[in-house]
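Example 3.2
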Amino acid sequence: MGVRLTWHNNSVGDNNVVYRSSTPIDPEALPVPLAVLAANQASYDDLSAVDGETYFYRVALVRGASSALSDELSFEVLPPAVGPFGPLVSSLAPACWLRLNETTGAVAYDSSGNNRNASYAVSAESLTSAGLLVGDDDKGIVLPPTLTPLVLSSAPVASGGDWTFGVIVRPTSVPPQTALGVLLQLGANGTGCPELDVIDRSGGTFGFRVMASGTSQLFASPSSWSYGSAVVVYLRQSAAGRHLFVNGAAQGNTTGRWGSFTGTTRLGFSRFGADAYPLPCGLDEVQFYGAALSDAQIAELTDAALGIL
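Structure, written as tokens:
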């Protein structure tokens, strides 16, 4: 996780020198400096500190052959707090789970429920460090307006069966072109394939609508949210029909199932005729489950996600 040190010098010097040791530091036998910094620098981030270890630190202000040594501080380095959302998703064995791996800068594509054991090829420039979540072990997948949509080469769930799609999304502005933003187009070459859209509404707000093949609206959310809001969305198909939930609240449903789909699945784009443009929004924790999650499971996932937003 790292350690941040800050200090204040009461006099002018040539350098600040940071010392670190795994045992108490003897002022008469200082270890090799961890860092030598400019005299006007008053903080240092020790990013090499290892989680679970305890370190002792001192800072010296050096001027010529003289130095003034600080009191000693010790820290046990703890890993960042991880909310229950990630473990909960794993326990439900998603067919596909996309989240940004902050270590490698790649999106994890996982079919086993353990989210970091495979990589999904996405160009590095399509990802930024701006995240939606705080307290979980990842950053957000963010698609700025200058970049291409996120594409899966095939549908992650079977056509005609029960399935659930989940995502944390933050639309930041009105979708370009026709003011239609597509969060999900599942199997784009199918007949009556599933589609979930972000729609612009008055007063700087947005809503959602559920479509078949982008041409037939099944229903729209009665509620609206302000641009910049991060919301938790779940779309489910089951024998009882098609249901939409946003932040845990039911936002519409209809009976029946979508038609067949087998082809490319796209996430986060704005459609203008046959052309696709990037959607100005952030996506995170994209989940596909090959089963219809219950209302209770969706509520539990939503509560866990809202707890780390």
